[in-house]
Design goal:
seven-stranded mixed beta sheet, 3 domains, 13 helices, Chloramphenicol Acetyltransferase, about 500 residues, five-stranded mixed beta sheet
Amino acid sequence: MTLKLKYQNEFNKSYLIDELSEEQQNEYNKFMNKVSSKLRLSKKQNQQVIADFNNALIYYTKNGLSLEKALKRLDPDKLGDFYLEAGNNWYPLDNAATIYPLSMKFGQMPMFRVSAYLTESVVPEILQMALSFTIKRFPSFATTIKAGFFWHYLDSTRMRYQIENERILPCIPINVSGLRAQSFRVLYYKKRISIELFHVLTDGSGAMVFLKSLVAEYLRLMGHKVSSDDGCWDINEESSADEVSNEFAKAELRNGVSGFTGKRAVQMDGKISNIKPCRVLHFEMDGEKLHSVAKKHNVTITNYVLGQMFLAVKAASKTKGEVRIQVPINMRKFNGSKTVRNYAMYFDCDLNIDEIGSLEEILPLIKKQIQEKSSEEEMNRMMSTTIKLVKSLKFVPLGIKKPVASLAYGFLGDQIFTTFLSNLGVIDTPKEMQKLVEKFDFVLGPSDLCRASCGLITYNHKTVLSITKITANSSFEDSLLALFEKDGIAVEVSGSGLYED
């Protein structure tokens, strides 16, 4: 005999699963009672989590999966004790993150996005479950930013973290002022899963660990076998102190001062849009071809792309002065740190616009600057400067820290940079994911002044250069496209139209 089952939970809210036998009904009730036993959130949020399990079960059974296999796939033990604990942990902001809340303006926040493109359309019911299972593995992400007397800090928050259907502009600010406000969002659109983060949580490398782990769990829930290696964390392992550590606190202080100040840089032409970003473009290239061309010039891919960017900036600017491009450096490469907090420094590569001749002329200059400025010694010196400046503001009350911080950091904001290039390098995933994930991309949040910002990432021999625009003027990307194609690199261009239209 079959029947329609209505599961009555302790909050007297009904959920419907059709056509279950009496034996299946008993199994279902046991399962949902176990789910309920794993939850100690608010009444509303408990109901929402239970509804998430039901929605996933309905999806599975409608698509031919037996109830027995569906219940096993959604094992409530994967929730751990995350939704039972009070969440009493808190995290001081890492030294790189301390400036972000102080530098925020109305309608502007340092944001960025990492995205994975799957071979099949995203199933939101399953992605929601993947997030609910994965977030416990990243305790420093399961936080709300709060203001203390002297500094902002991250406060653990136990709640239902929710996915969103992507309907908004990329990288727009997140409202972090609420009592349980997330500092990140998980979005889906067609075959794309994206994570957008307030930079206070992590840097690009930390975000990629989160994204890969989330996507791996999503694929497992979709029935694929995916191992936990190559930067995909086992979501059922306990988080370690090394993974949430502030590496700046361990640094050995060096003599000298580096970074943070500079003269105004050349800015590209084009009226700044009222809508930021006004456009996001992706240049997809054959990674092996790009590497081959760079090798022919005796430089790395980063050097090569920087060279082409300098040439494109010159074509897109009528002003004289220094063209200065900021390039972040992942400090983990020097000591193998596993932290998913911020752990990057940066250097600036600069050329006077009158010095920018041919690519062959400027690449040796760029290569020399990178070798000198991005060395471990120089990066450690800059990190020491960061630590000293944070310490100098330690006992300044938060209410007056913002203007003091601006003065201490010599902050000229975006005025000292022309543009940005952040290269996350080659992304590794478990081999099972390589046939299920077509590519990744990395989008920087819009700048206040710099007309274009660039993020670079390579996966499965595909390199994607993403350009975030704050002007409709297309001189920069038009020139960059022509320069790549002139060097024999085919470029597939995709992205948005002008949002301001």
